[in-house]
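FORM 12-B: Structure-to-Sequence Request
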């Protein structure tokens, strides 16, 4: 990519792929059950396709939500506050794009406001929107920071996610206690190591 190429915004809606009908999705689940070696018509599995499709609607609802809308309402009266705003211990429930297996963990988000702030629940919602999509943990970490930067124009943002991936715990190498940590720093958080250090210190449990 050329250095002059504009950065693609993360706040634009995800490109829509035509969705199959609910009946088509349920038929696909039946196929997977049969491929696994079981009978989709037996009593215990007869309603499983409907349950799975309903679960998918919840697990991947982030495709129908817009982070820009969540961050659009800001408050400009910050009364001179110029230090970081930090949210700790945000639950993360997501699915990796490689195996569609869950990864579960915690997110920590901070930003340095300029002349406006956003309701703290909106930041939690942004984390949830990106978590309820298929992606890698690395991508999600960057998306959250980019969304905050684009909407709030802060002096900098910081995001850390600490998660355990079931694709590694329950298959493959079968190591259930390995935690993956990803970070993304922008603006002053990126250029000021002391600020990074303070963020990492403040998000530790007391």
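FORM 12-B RESPONSE
SEQUENCE OUT:
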């Amino acid at each position: 990519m050329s250095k002059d190429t504009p950065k693609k915004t993360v706040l634009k809606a995800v490109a829509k792929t035509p969705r199959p009908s609910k009946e088509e999705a349920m038929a696909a689940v039946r196929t997977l059950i049969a491929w696994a070696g079981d009978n989709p018509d037996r009593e215990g599995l007869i309603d499983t396709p409907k349950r799975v499709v309903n679960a998918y609607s919840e697990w991947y609802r982030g495709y129908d939500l817009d982070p820009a809308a969540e961050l659009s309402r800001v408050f400009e009266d910050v009364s001179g506050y110029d230090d970081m705003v930090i949210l700790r211990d945000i639950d993360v429930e997501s699915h990796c794009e490689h195996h569609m297996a869950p990864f579960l963990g915690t997110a920590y988000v901070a930003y340095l406001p300029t002349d406006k702030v956003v309701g703290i629940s909106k930041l939690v919602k942004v984390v949830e929107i990106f978590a309820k999509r298929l992606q890698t943990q690395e991508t999600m970490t960057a998306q959250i920071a980019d969304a905050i930067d684009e909407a709030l124009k802060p002096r900098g943002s910081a995001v850390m996610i600490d998660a355990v991936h079931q694709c590694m715990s329950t298959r493959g190498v079968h190591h259930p206690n390995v935690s993956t940590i990803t970070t993304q720093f922008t603006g002053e958080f990126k250029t000021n190591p002391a600020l990074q250090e303070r963020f990492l210190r403040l998000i530790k449990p007391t």
